[in-house]
Amino acid sequence: MRSESRALGLGGGLIMALALGACTENNFYTQKHTDVFQQARRNTVDVLLVVDNSCSMVEEQNKLASNFQAFIQFFQGVDVDYQIGVITTDNEAAEFSGRLVGGDDEVILRSADGLVLERVAWDRDWDLPAGASWSLDPDQMTVTGNDRRDAWCSGAGEYGAGDQGTPGAANPSCGASGPEDSGDTGASDSGDTGSNETSEGAAPVVGELIITELMVDPLAVADELGEWVELTNVSDHTLDLSGCTISDDGRNGASIPAGTLLAAGERLVLSRSDDAATNGGLDASISLADGMTLNNDVLILKPDTEGAGEIFSEMVAQGTTGTGIEMGLDSALSALSEPLLSTTNAGFVRTEANLSLIIVSDEEDSSQYAVDHYFSYFAGLKGDAAFRDHSLFNLSAVVGSEEPEFDGDPSCSSDDGVASYGSRYVDLAQRTNGLIESICDDDFSPIAQELGLTLSGLVAEYELSERPREDTLEVSLYSSASEDDFEKELVRDVDYIYVVERNSLRFEEGQVPPSQWFIKVEYELLPKGAVQESDTGEDGTP
Length: 542
Prior knowledge:
- The chain is α+β, with helices and mostly antiparallel strands.
- 12% of the residues lie in helices and 25% in strands.
- It has three domains: 19-40 and 459-524, no CATH class; 44-95 and 298-455, Rossmann fold (3-Layer(aba) Sandwich); 105-287, no CATH class.
- It has helices at residues 58-65, 68-72, 223-226, 308-316, 328-335, 371-380, 423-431, 445-456; strands spanning 19-23, 29-38, 44-51, 81-88, 105-110, 116-122, 134-136, 152-154, 158-159, 163-164, 209-215, 228-233, 239-240, 245-247, 253-255, 261-262, 267-271, 286-287, 354-360, 393-399, 412-414, 417-419, 436-438, 461-463, 474-478, 486-490, 497-499, 504-506, 518-524.
- α1 (58-65) runs antiparallel to α4 (308-316).
- It is globular.
């Protein structure tokens, strides 16, 4: 995002943009010039991310999930007041239909050959206990008994650094009533339900290995250190867990190491970290640092959200079980309308904040109304001014962005598949000066960076008013318009890049000046007809 080419004249403050005469030591007359720019005011922004969760979107969800830091980089260090919520394009299933996602997750245990041995799924209605484990009632230790919310209670007793639970030990009674058949039979992906004996233990089959305790939201330490899952062998023989996997319906997955044996009646604690000095004092059996995360009951990400990147990854990796009739605009309409605004999504839309929607989909929108209807409603949430001032409301689209030559042809393709032209999303993005990006791009990092910068309201590139002699560039940063509030001299290729083709200064990640600060640029003018000393590409690199 580039600034308009302008220098600020600030009487009584920073030097105005003047052409000043100077003599060199060889008595040649040169001109010295000053440009002064003020960084834009940072935004207060509510960002609603609408993610396609149909069957063709797994790769795109993963690319989006892995680029939270690229998206958020321009919000950090400049105090952008943001909220980020995620919904899906599925406006039919009750679990979605405009509801902010979060607090929903599952742990799936599979055998080495893909058999689903055990599964526990929870949602936000389970009321996650912070700082305490979920502990399964000892009377409900079956693959069907642990599907019910009332079979679980808060962990009893204190371990390690102060969290509540009994990792690796017997659970207390929850007082749950008898088990009900929920239909969870550990359905096989492969059809194999037989036991494979080894010399030291048997491969587990359905009903022999139960998830009996979960620490989803530790308080003593960060989630990435203190989350854990306890498995219990309820069979009468030793089980060989080599190659078994623990995963969810999203992007998480980790394998239990070869040679892992669990004796009859024993418990195995799988944790994010096996270092008791940092994991909250947990005596863990096995560390699965990569590939295992448990989702907390967080619906809205804010600047002070702990572990925001990990939670974002869970939110956007919504799986591919959603309807194939994508209705992103209808879903957003549901999210930003009653009754959800006063219930599930309460607190997301703030009166003082701008509103930005980001659509990520490989299909056309099939919502019921004309695009005009959605524009009128969304802009109306921010008042009459939002129909003209698109900083108040805008929509950006990461979709099939190019109209194909023939109707029905793909808009774009990649190794991950093809994308239909998202004409309705593109239309609304154009109306609101939003960004339009291709979902077929292999690398989402530049897209995430551009979206983040745009939504932050900050400017990362400033065009100079004259051509400089590059070796004379002097760039200074001030926290106000007063010369007394000098902060630092900026070093080229360390604090900024000079882009020859655009005659501009560009700031990269971690370099963008804070909101409303001033950038003063002094330089000698390049003589007419002279050639720049260096030539850089469009991206500012040699």
